[in-house]
Amino acid sequence: MRTIHISASKDYDVLIGEGLLDKSGELTRKVVKPCKCMIVSDDTVDELYGDRAQISFSYSGFDVVRFSFPAGEASKNLETLTDLLNAMGEAKLSRSDLVVALGGGVTGDMAGFAAAIYTRGIRFVQIPTTLLAAVDSSVGGKTAVDMPFGKNMVGAFHQPSLVITDTDVLRDLPALQLSNGAAEAIKCGVLNDPALFALLEGGEWLDQIDEVVARCVAYKRDVVAGDEFDTGNRAFLNLGHTFGHAIEICSGLKLLHGQAVGIGMLMAAAAAGCPEALIRQIASCLRANGLPTHCDYGAAALAEAALNDKKRAGGAITLVLPESVGACFLKKVPVSELSGCFERALASQAALGL
Ligand SMILES: NC(=O)c1ccc[n+]([C@@H]2O[C@H](COP(=O)([O-])OP(=O)(O)OC[C@H]3O[C@@H](n4cnc5c(N)ncnc54)[C@H](O)[C@@H]3O)[C@@H](O)[C@H]2O)c1
Ligand SMILES: [Zn+2]
Q1: End-to-end CA, the chain
Q2: DSSP3 helix / strand / coil % (the chain, rounded to 5)
Q3: 64, 6, 76, 61: which is closest to 30 by C-alpha?
Q4: Is 106 in the pocket of ligand 1 (CB under 6 A)?
Q5: What integer is the mean pLDDT of 242-270?
Q6: Ligand 1 atom 4: residue of nearest CA
Q7: How close is the Cα of 145 to the center of ligand 2, in Å?
Q8: What is the pLDDT of residues 206-224, one digit of tens each?
Q9: Mean of all residue pLDDT scores within the chain
Q10: Does residue 103 line the site of ligand 1, with CB under 6 A?
Q11: Contact 310/150 with Cβ under 8 angstroms?
Q12: Please, what are the domains in the chain?
């Protein structure tokens, strides 16, 4: 088992290894005294892993209640959050009790937000079951639900007490979910870690999934330690996301987040005027991981979608642009130039046959 220590407003460990789900109660007991705990999952994960988590926590002395909700992003809203808070109230959870988020990013974001606001904040433990949640959403303390006026628009910063990633669970993920998470790992490689990128480039890294998760978490640890509340360098984590969110929205959410972010990274590289070889290298890494490289939408539609991005500060958008694998820079672009950026990126994509 690997342990990565995160230092933020609260310190906590991220544990990564095989077979950790069945030890999750025991591992949690080392940081949270046995108490009442609410295990929160979507219905898919609840069916697959809920009993095993419950057995482990009960065996370790926790008094377990469970809450599940329909799987999917559409559940990450105030309505499900209210149901969850009511279930916590009915189960009489007190401020010294615990929420366990067992699932992907949807579960982690929503259960984490419930933990942030229930009785003004109780502890929570993340047990990510998707690669995306393991490499990204379970670390860093951002929690939220979606609103009619935008994704993740209501939430809080609330750090978990512990993150437990069972890599056996990740290995059993459907291929689509693995590639969805791989896009965020490729992002970490392009941002900061050429060795991680090289590992992912081969496409055959499942037997080294511990290494992939650990490298991404270590990178996120460093970024979050310097900018927990997202006012500075945390912006780097948005590589591919301004373009990617726009693509996601234009696809009517048919493309998964990671698929859109992958194309978004390519477009960022093209918009930055990166050498052709670098763009081709990123494209081939995406393909090796089952991710698409072609953007089906026009510049005007993309720019309009991007303008709804909450990360826009005043009249400008901060883009993360690659220089090489392992090095990126931030560039503030006036909103009026955004459409031109998309046009340049699409033209370069077309010229390269992507
Ligand atoms: N908080 C953050 O910093 C942060 C960062 C990135 C993304 N996010 C959020 O994360 C969410 C996306 O996360 P996600 O991709 O994990 O989505 P998700 O939680 O909806 O999981 C994707 C699908 O995989 C299924 N699933 C989960 N674990 C499984 C398993 N082990 N085996 C089989 N199926 C399994 C789920 O039931 C779901 O249908 C978005 O809402 C996004 O906003 C948050
Ligand atoms: Zn993302």
Answers
A1: 40
A2: 55, 20, 25
A3: 61
A4: yes
A5: 92
A6: 137
A7: 15
A8: 999 999 999 999 999 999 9
A9: 94
A10: yes
A11: yes
A12: 2-171 (3.40.50.1970), 175-351 (1.20.1090.10)
